[in-house]
Write a structure and sequence with these properties.
Elements: H1 8-17, H2 32-35, H3 37-48, H4 52-75, H5 81-96, H6 100-115, H7 140-152, H8 174-184, E1 186-187, H9 189-192, H10 197-212, H11 225-236, E2 246-251, E3 254-259, H12 261-270, H13 278-287, H14 305-318, H15 324-345, H16 361-374, H17 393-407, H18 416-425
Parallel strand pairs: 1-2
Antiparallel strand pairs: 2-3
Helix pairs in contact: 4-5, 4-6, 5-6, 7-10, 10-11, 10-12, 12-14, 13-14, 14-15, 14-16, 16-18
Length: 435
């Protein structure tokens, strides 16, 4: 899924249209580019390949068969780490590219992985040949994501990789970083057959976490990168009208910005809410609530715990700066999401109803539990939006805790999400008398 480098004229246009977000007006309606995003991208992929819809449908049908097998094995406690990596990347390719030769290769890889369960567990180990993580991923940005999962977190800040991660050298320099991020920050789907949104989102987010915190330990980032990266984030990649971050698209002879909930969540979260104009972010978040992902909250018109987690994180960041009307609106929306989570998503055994968009059952468990933790369902000190009491919270916490502890060693995403549930969401301390 390699993106074409923008031409000089396109780069010039991007520079001319980049600006800060200090003077944009209040968001009163959803930008037209956001409203039409789904329709436009489908049209653009079809313009690239007239048979795009039929070709994609055929691959989705095959992928669904493999998807069911992976979830069945994960649910039964079998290791699915390698298959999960291929499946996650495959789902990304099916939404981000019309390169069906590449998709077919990944389908074949997934079938082979499922036929060799003995090879599953080694997928999350570092490759000594090139220093990458995620051995069953093929895309660079997916390997970058796997690296952060293994070595980028606070708990691993003193752990140095066995093999130097020289695959990061690709972006280790002001010109290298700028060229790479700029090249994937804009998509020209009719020309390339690629939507760079997901690669841009994950790469920008993970590089932000790694570079700003000098991780992984022992890797020497160019000391100039922090300033360069912050300039790109604040002045190049942010929509001045809405305060959101997202991808830009070449359409009708110009570059248009399309807002992305996930990228915005990542930027606000990874910068610890130290971004200007958070009330505008709140306005935009509320304005796009009825739209489907990637712009809005919904997935095929329904709630999704992953997006609900992103939404409440943005609400929490913006709450200290919000107006009374904004706070009332946020409270009402959190009530709706909470009701859905507890009555439709939560299952009697402490799991959550599987969602096709989640990378694994493990990830789905994390997103739902993180949503509950972020709104203070388990901990009153985190309950920024209401003074309500939740008498069922302790019992629900225990159900979730029991489920996670029972499945921790067979997590489809290698167990890192289960670890985050225990440590960050449930504040679980196994040696404490209260757990």
């Amino acid at each position: 899924m390699k993106a074409a480098t923008p031409s000089l004229s396109l780069l010039s246009l991007l520079l001319l249209t980049s600006c800060t977000t200090t003077t944009a007006p209040k968001v009163r309606q959803v930008p037209q580019a956001d409203l039409e995003q789904k329709t436009r991208t489908e049209q653009e992929f079809t313009a690239f390949d007239l048979h795009y819809k039929e070709e994609k449908a055929a691959r989705i049908a095959k992928a669904r068969t493999f998807y069911a097998k992976v979830r069945e094995r994960e649910a039964s406690g079998q290791s699915t780490t390698c298959s999960k990596e291929i499946l996650w990347e495959l789902k990304a390719l099916l939404t981000q590219t019309a390169n069906f030769t590449l998709i077919d290769q990944r389908l074949a890889d997934l079938e082979s992985s499922l036929n060799h369960p003995e090879l599953e567990a080694g997928a999350d180990e570092q490759n000594p040949a090139d220093g990458t993580w995620g051995r069953c991923y093929a895309e660079w940005y997916c390997k970058l994501d796997a690296l952060y999962d293994d070595l980028g977190k606070e708990s691993y800040k003193h752990r140095e990789p066995a093999t130097p991660p020289h695959f990061l050298d690709r972006v280790n320099g002001p010109e290298k970083l700028t060229e790479y991020l700029t090249s994937i920050s804009v998509s020209d789907i009719p020309r390339t057959g690629v939507d760079n949104l997901l690669e841009f989102n994950l790469s920008l987010g993970n590089l932000t976490r790694l570079i700003l915190h000098d991780r992984p330990k022992g890797y020497g980032w160019d000391p100039r990168l922090k300033a360069v990266l912050m300039d790109l984030i604040m002045h190049r990649f942010r929509n001045p009208r809405t305060g959101f971050w997202g991808e830009r698209y070449v359409r009708d002879g110009r570059v248009v910005f399309v807002d992305d909930l996930s990228t915005t969540f990542h930027m606000v979260t990874y910068l610890h809410a130290n971004v200007p104009n958070l009330p505008r972010v709140v306005d935009t978040t509320l304005a796009v609530k009825d739209l489907d992902y990637p712009v809005g909250w919904l997935f095929k018109g329904q709630y999704w715990n992953h997006n609900n987690m992103d939404v409440v994180a943005l609400f929490k960041a913006g709450w200290p700066h919000a107006s009374v009307a904004q706070k009332q609106a946020m409270t009402a929306e959190i009530e709706k999401m909470l009701h859905w989570c507890l009555t439709e998503s939560l299952q009697p055994d402490g799991s959550f109803k599987p969602h096709v968009a989640d990378g694994s059952l493990e990830e789905g468990e994390y997103y739902a539990t993180s949503f509950l933790a972020r709104i203070g369902f388990f901990d009153k000190k985190e309950r920024f939006w209401t003074n309500r009491e939740f008498p069922d919270a302790p019992a629900i916490r225990e159900k979730i805790l029991a489920y996670v502890l029972a499945h921790q060693k067979s997590g489809g995403s290698g167990g890192s999400y289960y670890e985050s549930i225990l440590e960050d969401c449930l504040n679980y301390r196994p040696n404490s008398p209260h757990g």
